[in-house]
């Protein structure tokens, strides 16, 4: 384990096992419709890569970038969404699945879902790796979730603190003294 972490919450094995289950479920749900999978950068990058490879079905990938944290550990509530040129294209009539790393307050995903819903997709669902139970500010429906996680600041498997720790293959709790 990385010395900046106090404990591992999800091991590499646990994550991989759960992601394979989700991928199999999604492949069944989207059989025959070639869904548009919209990854939210950068946090969902690793999850998305493993998830779509666990889906034995044709998919199309798009990305958009959202940020609210800056270098802090609490959501600023001030979400910036950057629609990559990828998403300017028409999504009407398509089956869209938004993939993100984690729902904390829900503010980020709420904004993204509202924005995509205006573009008249045939269906719009959300898949997150993690969902935090406490501190939900904006109601956002997630149709698929990997794990319900503790209300602590987590890093690894895409989750960062000031752009660090994303490439850890497991997810753990960052020692508070690192960010205080
Ligand atoms: P929300 O808008 O739901 O409060 O926050 C969502 C975004 O905040 C996530 O996509 C993620 O980038 C970031 N976030 C929320 N909780 C955590 C956490 O425990 N660790 C890290 N590294 N990022 C988090
Ligand atoms: Mg994020």
Gist of the model:
This protein is 23% helix and 31% strand. It is an alpha/beta fold.
Secondary-structure blueprint of this entry?
Elements: E1 5-10, H1 12-29, E2 36-41, H2 45-53, E3 60-67, E4 80-83, E5 95-103, H3 107-117, E6 123-132, E7 144-149, E8 154-155, E9 171-174, H4 176-179
Parallel strand pairs: 2-3, 2-5, 5-6, 6-7
Antiparallel strand pairs: 1-9, 3-4, 8-9
Helix pairs in contact: 1-2
The chain binds guanosine-5'-monophosphate and magnesium ion.
The total number of structural domains is: 1
Question: Helix amount, in percent?
Answer: 10-25%
Poorly predicted segments: none
Radius of gyration: 16 Å
Q: Which hetero compounds are present in the coordinates?
A: guanosine-5'-monophosphate, magnesium ion
Termini Cα gap: 21 Å
Number of strands: 9
- Please identify the structural class as seen in this structure: alpha/beta
At CATH level 3, the topology is Rossmann fold
Shape, please?
A: globular
- Helical element count? 4
Order of helices and strands: EHEHEEEHEEEEH
Mean pLDDT over the full residue set: 89
- Fraction of residues in β-strands: 25-35%
What can be said about the biggest beta sheet? 6 strands, mixed
- The strands making up the biggest β-sheet line up spatially as 4-3-2-5-6-7
- For the record, the CATH class is Alpha Beta
Q: Judging by the overall fold, what is the CATH architecture?
A: 3-Layer(aba) Sandwich
């Amino acid at each position: 384990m990385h010395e900046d972490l106090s404990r591992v919450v999800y091991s590499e094995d646990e994550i991989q096992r759960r992601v394979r289950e989700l991928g199999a479920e999604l492949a069944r749900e989207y059989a025959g419709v070639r869904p548009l999978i919209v990854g939210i950068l950068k946090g969902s990058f690793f999850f998305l890569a493993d998830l779509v490879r666990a889906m034995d079905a044709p998919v199309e990938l798009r990305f958009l970038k959202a940020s609210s944290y800056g270098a802090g550990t609490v959501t600023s509530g001030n979400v910036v969404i950057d629609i990559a040129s990828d998403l300017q294209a028409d999504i009407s009539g398509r089956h869209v699945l938004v993939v993100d790393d984690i729902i904390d307050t829900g503010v980020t995903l709420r904004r993204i879902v509202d924005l995509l819903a205006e573009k008249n997709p045939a269906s719009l669902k959300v898949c997150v790796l993690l969902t935090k139970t406490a501190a939900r500010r904006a109601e956002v429906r997630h149709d698929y979730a990997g794990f319900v996680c503790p209300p602590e600041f987590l890093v690894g498997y895409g989750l960062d603190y000031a752009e660090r720790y994303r490439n850890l293959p497991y997810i753990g709790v960052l020692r508070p003294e690192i960010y205080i």
